[in-house]
Design goal:
The chain has 336 residues and is of the alpha/beta class. Helix content is 41%, strand content 17%. Strands 3-2-1-4-5-6-11 form a seven-stranded parallel sheet, with helices on both faces. A two-stranded parallel sheet has the order 7-10. Strands 8-13 form a two-stranded parallel sheet. The N and C termini lie far apart (42 Å).
């Protein structure tokens, strides 16, 4: 039985990942600070679903280096899945300090603890937001991503750079995961699927940015988690073909990797809303708006690297995924 730390365990992806690892027979220590960026009740409700003697929850903050050191010393983890972060592109426009603390200071503390504890593999959440002003699609991990358009994206790019440095200096195997618009049961209330579903049920208008001409590579959470479970033991290694005269961004001459995890099938926002309307059985009242600062018009994941590494690509269509999300939403909010 491996002992694995999952940070952000009360979060959307962290909750699902914890459940999946427990199903694999692992012992999971879940760390979360239960902050109030969104409903703490929802976070606690997720945790209440984890019914296993092999799960131990710790309430704590990544910026508390002393507590983090003690946690690593006590448990002697074999793997770390780092999903805790201050999320949200739009929130970063008004609250940059939260991103500096959690996504930079917190990630630095995780790296230090992994180094001193000689962790066998660190998986960490990056984001499709790192592609920023890049217009070349599909987004490939071989593209240069030096032009972020939000502070959130900049912190995720910084995480990748920090991880590479630790892989290079201390031989810490690190794998970064660029998630593309994750949705599904137990999703976050600040994300499109939840916002739109709530508004449609309530009869409230929804803001449709860029007049609905946005495209997103919507990716169902169980697909994300399946890929991560496979990657836990697909330990990052030095690329024997790495050429320092023509370096590729996704690999290195040290144990460092970056992968896209997306559905590889972008959908227009208008189409996403249509599928939601069909699942709910009610039309949305749409308020068409211009593109917001920090947003990108389109995301589209090239997942060929993921396929080569673990023979996996997401399979869940938005029709399947949205119906599952709406079923969960009805049940959670007790809507008949």
């Amino acid at each position: 039985m491996r002992k694995i730390l999952v940070t952000g365990a009360a979060g959307f992806i962290g909750y699902h990942m914890s459940q999946a690892l427990l199903s694999c027979g692992d012992f999971v220590v879940g760390l979360d600070n239960l902050n109030d960026y969104y409903s703490v009740d929802l976070k606690r409700a997720r945790l209440s679903q984890i019914d296993s003697e092999n799960f131990h929850f710790v309430e704590g903050d990544l910026v508390d280096r002393g507590s983090l050191d003690r946690l690593f010393e006590e448990h002697q983890f074999e793997r770390v899945v780092h999903l805790a972060a201050q999320a949200g592109v739009r929130y970063s426009l008004e609250n940059p300090g939260a991103y500096i603390d959690s996504n930079l200071v917190g990630f630095g503390n995780i790296l230090e603890c992994c180094r001193h504890s000689e962790i066998g593999h660190l998986l960490y959440a990056s984001s499709s937001s790192v592609y920023g002003a890049n217009k070349q699609q599909p987004f490939s991990v071989e593209h240069v991503v030096d032009h972020p358009v939000s502070l959130y994206a900049a912190t995720k790019k910084a995480n990748e750079l920090l991880a590479h440095t630790y892989s290079h200096l201390y031989s810490l195997p690190t794998t970064g995961l660029r998630f593309f618009t994750v949705y599904g049961p137990w999703g976050r209330p600040d994300m499109a699927a939840y916002i739109f579903t709530k508004a449609i049920f309530d009869g409230s208008p929804i803001n449709v940015f860029n007049h609905g001409k946005m495209q997103r590579d919507f990716t169902y959470v169980k697909d994300i988690v399946e890929a991560m479970v496979r990657l836990v033991d697909h330990i990052a290694a030095a690329d024997p073909k790495f050429d320092a005269l023509a370096p590729k961004p996704a690999t290195s001459n040290c144990p460092y990797r970056v992968f896209n995890i997306g559905n590889n099938q972008p959908e227009e926002l208008g189409r996403f809303i249509e599928v939601l309307e069909a699942a709910i059985g009610k039309k949305a009242n749409k308020n068409f708006m211009p593109l917001q600062p920090g947003d990108v018009v389109s995301t589209f994941a090239d997942v060929s690297g993921l396929q080569r590494a673990i023979d996996f690509r997401p399979q869940t269509t938005i029709e399947e995924g949205i119906h599952r999300f709406v079923d969960w939403y009805r049940d959670y909010h007790q809507i008949s």
